[in-house]
Amino acid sequence: MDHSATSPVAPEVLEAMLPYFTEVYGNASSLHSFGREAREALEAAREKVAGLIGARPEEIYFTSGGTESDNMSLKGIALKNRERGRHIITSSIEHPAILEVCHKLEGQGFEVTYLPVDREGLVSPADVEEALRDDTILVSIMHANNEIGTIQPIQEIGKLAAERDVYLHTDAVQTAGKIPVDVDRLGVDLLSISAHKLYGPKGIGALYVRKGTRMESITQGGGHEGGLRSGTENVPGAVGLARAAELAEEIMQPEMERLTALRDRLGEFVLENIPDSWINGHPVRRLPGNLNLGFARVEGESLLLFLDMKGIAVSTGSACSSRKLEASHVLRSLGLPPLMCHGSLRITMGRSNTSEDVDYLQSSLLEAVERFRSISAR
Ligand SMILES: *Cc1c(COP(=O)(O)O)cnc(C)c1O
Question: Where does 11-247 sit in CATH, by number?
């Protein structure tokens, strides 16, 4: 129940990838037939990934994952457009792959506005409008948050950015393959995807870049991927991402409905049966499998370790920051008092989770909260 941290490679994905390690291992840049065969697989993969998000194949660039796609977007736009302006708008609840790049750019003469979110984790389009300036070159707002699951009004923000001729990037790592994502509907110019969050392999992702977008490459070398991302192409990875995208599209609708029902059942159970508990994030504008729970007078870490002993994997804060003792930047941005940030649990359900899993989690959670509260009350 920690699918937002990563997901297993689907058997169909592994099967599609295997020949590209051993039989079709050519370098996609080689001119001989071995290379051409790899190139064909790579281009077929590009077409499938484009299909998942309503893009054209030539607008898809393979990368090593979400982190690299985010870095390329921000640095690539900043470097190329610095003569036009040095102002960037983002939100305070972005993934570190955005926030840390923004901090770095601030040290290099750029100015960044970090928009707040409301109690449910939403960025307000009105705030975006107010923050837009003549020297704004880029807005980067994630499609859905990895901790609290809140889905942002990207379409509205896209209209505002387009009116002002400002580039819009969205980190869609948590949404691609989970809910419908269409680059034209959203009105984005750049969009990040990672394979391992959608039942593909780790170490491969993609960046969508709308045709005509002015950006610089941050990786110099042999000029692969249209010169934007040098480095011998990861053909098995690209084939895996493409197969994962196809599968995700096929089962998206029923899987969304199934996970939403499991999520809501779990949420209702907790609110009804565990006193002083609440849900972090938006009640309905959230990822189907995501439930972020808060419990007063219990440490999230204690609950996590107790559930782990029962064979249940969940996270607290976020997977990346759980080693730090302070509450996650996302929970703090919701305006929760610090004490309300500590007893948080992120449950992210996925393909393998069943109704029985939810029953088991419910009884284990009930037991865990009661136990830790009775200890702390003594
Ligand atoms: C996981 C994640 C990333 C990073 O992707 P990697 O492929 O692991 O580098 C970026 N953004 C969000 C929202 C994520 O959940």
Answer: 3.40.640.10
